[in-house]
Specification:
Elements (H helix, E strand, L loop, with lengths): L1 E2 L12 E4 L15 H11 L2 E6 L5 H10 L9 E4 H11 L3 H4 L4 E5 L14 E3 L7 E4 L13 H9 L4 E3 L5 E4 L2 E4 L1 H10 L4 E3 L5 H11 L7 E5 L2 H11 L2 E5 L5 H4 L9 H10 L6 E3 L5
Helix pairs in contact: 7-8
């Protein structure tokens, strides 16, 4: 496992990077220090980038959010979100699971995530008793826990409703604190005996799509950079891509560091082993 101080050390080894957002580029509200300059340096170097996020909303909304943080669209390449992948499945109905979902959805999630239903013909309803399936994009409020939705999950399970999870993440860091995500709710539903289907990281399919969008045929020249062992590193490992683990994100507390601070390589290696993951390298943050 390599220990990196910055991406300039390895740009001669890669033609493109698949980048996470939360925990690597920003904390959900503010861009991390040095991120804009790092993007500029990558562009000058000719290194391609695609942003791959488990955000449960359409990709264009992520662009709007980053622009508001001062990260202009011309700094990076393509953007692809788990919400976009979910929207594509709900629109095309090409997958057999999605083809059988029906046209009425009970939505667990905030209003800002309803973009995954636009132009799909699916009706969002308030009565779980009349729904064909559950669309789960995460807690309605940032301080909600999985327990907040226990009654709804029990009702959905009683009707044997399938669940579409538009964000496989269980937790994310927002302004330095842990916030529950849709994946945690979906996994609770599964423990109740319910069926949940996920779209997004660590599914190898989204990494293959991201690699194709980069237009780089030699996948040994592509690296994945992200902060979560269970999604970013796992997805890279399962897709045959090199993983660069940002230790200053979701696992920072477990490693005794904060964003941008160097983690003890032995401690990082031990934690990665606990998760059964093998990062190719570690880096304290998204920096040049």
């Amino acid at each position: 496992m390599k220990v990196l101080q910055g991406l300039s050390e390895i740009t001669d080894e890669f033609d493109g990077f698949i980048l996470d957002l939360w925990g690597l580029i920003h904390d959900g509200v503010t861009a991390y220090p040095g991120v804009v300059d790092t993007f500029k340096s990558l562009a000058i170097d000719g290194t391609k980038t695609i942003l791959l996020s488990n955000a449960p909303r359409r990709s264009r909304l992520l662009v709007d959010g980053m622009t508001a943080m001062g990260i202009a669209p011309d700094l990076y390449g393509d953007v692809f979100s788990s919400g976009e992948a979910t929207w594509q499945e709900l629109s095309s109905r090409a997958d057999s699971f999605f083809a059988g979902l029906g046209q009425s959805a009970y939505h667990i999630g905030p209003e800002r995530d309803v973009s995954v239903l636009e132009e799909t013909g699916i009706q969002r309803i308030q009565d779980i008793g009349a729904a064909d399936f559950v669309l789960n994009t995460g807690p309605v409020e940032l301080d909600h826990s999985v327990d907040t939705y226990e009654q709804i999950l029990v009702q959905a399970r009683a009707r044997d409703l399938p669940m579409v999870c538009a964000n496989p993440d269980e937790v994310v860091m927002r302004e330095g604190r842990r916030v529950v995500c849709a994946g945690a709710i979906a996994r609770r539903y599964e423990t109740l005996g319910g069926q949940a289907v996920y779209r997004g990281k660590p599914d190898p399919a989204v990494y293959h799509l991201a690699a194709a969008r980069l237009g780089i045929e030699d996948h040994s020249r592509i690296a994945v950079i992200g902060d979560a062992l269970e999604t970013d590193v796992a997805g890279a490992n399962e897709s045959g891509l090199k993983a660069i683990w940002c230790t200053g994100g979701i696992h920072a507390e477990a490693l005794g560091v904060s964003y941008g601070q160097d983690a003890d390589p032995k401690r990082a290696a031990a934690l990665a082993k606990e998760y059964g993951r093998g990062p190719w390298a570690i880096i304290p943050g998204f920096r040049w």
